[in-house]
Specification:
elongated; 84% helix; mainly alpha; single chain
Length: 87
């Protein structure tokens, strides 16, 4: 990634990371999971940053990725739960 493009990404993260984390928290109700989902979403966003930035829909795409990442994590969590019987 070019230096100026990477600087744009850093500025976006600096200004929007907290908002994205709050969105994730509203979905999952756990700050740790929200932070993990936000971090994963920002990694995914970094991978496609140049293409998304050219389209100009960075904020909307970032929120979509945070929501998808958070919901994916919740699905994985619920599929790992084991129902215990009365002993």
């Amino acid at each position: 990634m070019r230096a100026e493009t990477e600087q744009d990404y850093v500025e976006f993260v600096t200004h929007h990371a907290n908002s994205l984390c709050r969105t994730a928290y509203l979905l999952c109700g756990d700050w740790r999971r929200a932070e993990d989902a936000t971090q994963e979403a920002l990694i995914r966003l970094y991978r496609v940053w140049g293409r998304i930035q050219r389209k100009g829909a960075v904020g909307a795409y970032a929120r979509k990725v945070v929501v998808s990442t958070t919901l994916d994590a919740l699905r994985r969590k619920s599929s790992q739960e084991v129902v215990g019987g009365d002993e």
